[in-house]
Amino acid sequence: MGSQWGADRYYQKSRREGYRSRAAYKILDIQNKFNIIRSDDNIVDLGAAPGSWSQALRDMTDGQVIAVDLNPIVPIENVITIKGDFTTEKVQSQILSHVDLVNVVVCDASPKLSGQKAYDQARAIGLCEQALHFACLILKPGGNFVIKSFQGEMFKELLDEARENFYAVKVYRSKATRRGSTEAYIVARNFKGFSNVSDRQL
Questions:
Q1: Distance (Å, whole) CA 128 – CA 144
Q2: Is 45 among the annotated ligand-binding positions?
Q3: Is the pTM of this model over 0.70?
């Protein structure tokens, strides 16, 4: 790990406090700012590996935390881990086999980067759209959604789609985001739900 990582205060703090990555401080910051998670919420954490968000979420709720990723996640106490693609009916059914309802969906996932800015931006937005669609399928009305994206081409379209489905939507740059990064979080609260139950069949 290079010197720029070693000098990062959030990286050093995560090692001291037992989090698997510095990213834990992003969801802690978002919770402190927006209070999106209540003490009894069931939460689905998409793109969860290595598990630092799930570690932080576990301390925010007495409800169930379910961590999902294409890669295996080292077990976390009192967190259900699922290896698979959250866009598939199989994984969605697995999630719903553990909880009757989902109050919050969070996603800190990023696609593997190629170094080609336009291509990487398109893939990142595509992943965000999939996560937003998943949230709209699985959240209870009034639920909350948080997703990482990158500001640039197509970001406005993603933001507009979130606003169509949630009553309150904000763009937030976490204090733990590295300087110079275009990373931003969409914090969407109070899911509007569906007028027709059949619209949200998985």
A1: 15
A2: no
A3: yes
State how far the Cα of 26 lies from the Cα of 119, in Å rounded to an integer: 25
Residue 108 marked ligand-binding: yes
195 confidence band (pLDDT: 50, 70, 90): very low
Q: Is 148 known to be catalytic?
A: yes
CATH of domain 21-200: 3.40.50.150
The active-site residue out of 148, 156, 170, 175 is 148
pLDDT in tens, 5-51: 444 776 677 767 657 788 899 999 999 999 999 999 999 999 999 99
In SS3 terms, the chain reads as CCHHHHCCHHHHHHHHHCCCCCCHHHHHHHHHHHCCCCCCCCEEEECCCCCHHHHHHHCCCCCCEEEEECCCCCCCCCEEEEECCCCCHHHHHHHHCCCCCEEEEEECCCCCCCCCHHHHHHHHHHHHHHHHHHHHHHEEEEEEEEEEEECCCCHHHHHHHHHHHEEEEEEECCCCCCCCCCEEEEEEEEECCCCCHHHHCC
